[in-house]
Design goal:
179 residues; alpha+beta; Lipocalin; eight-stranded antiparallel β-barrel; 2 helices; 8 strands; 38% strand; disordered N terminus
């Protein structure tokens, strides 16, 4: 009899853990954190982006660059047409004004391509496990756009960031509670 009760309690505990687990994780997920993008052709990292939360509005800065031999590490956004004109790429606010749109989605913001200074409408979608951020820049309507897939980096990678980047992020440079 005692063994039967223990088995029933163990099964009940396992069921409750499975039922509560995903709900708890998804309720806490946000895009806040450090993300890596890769070059779609070479599959090599080309940048780290730090997404921060400013009272429910999400912005992202270029936190680390992976330069090719001969590339200038002090490149500036010479083609930017707004307040980012002639600002260094490192620390440049790339993603601006993203707001929650339900179901791990964010929209209403913009994304900057610092290579040509163009600013695109943007939306982001967090994968169900919180480890991939799909960032889409587009012109006018979302169908006329392109996705980038960013991978969440572990908290330990914050140590690799330049102190000036950590200062730009202020108190929001910590990890999100989703991982």
């Amino acid at each position: 009899m005692r063994a039967k009760i223990v088995t029933v309690l163990a099964a009940l505990a396992a069921f409750l853990a499975l039922a509560a687990g995903p709900t708890t994780v998804s309720a806490d997920m946000t895009p806040v954190g450090l993300w890596q993008s890769v070059d779609q052709q070479t599959k090599q990292p080309n940048g780290w982006f730090l997404i921060v939360d400013h009272d429910g509005v999400y912005d992202g800065i270029l936190a680390k660059m992976f330069l090719q031999p001969g590339q200038d590490p002090n490149v500036v956004c010479s083609r930017c047409k707004d307040d980012r004109h002639n600002k260094p790429w490192l620390g440049l606010e790339i993603v601006r004004g993203m707001r929650p749109a339900g179901d791990n989605a964010y929209d209403g913001g913009t994304i900057l391509d610092p290579r040509d200074g163009n600013i695109y409408d943007a939306e982001m979608k967090l994968s169900p496990d919180g480890q991939t951020l799909i960032v889409r820049g587009y012109l006018g309507i979302s169908l006329l756009g392109r996705n980038q897939y960013w991978t969440r980096l572990p908290d330990s990678d914050y140590a690799q960031l330049d102190p000036s980047i950590k200062a730009l992020a202020g108190g929001n440079a910590g990890s999100s509670s989703s991982h």
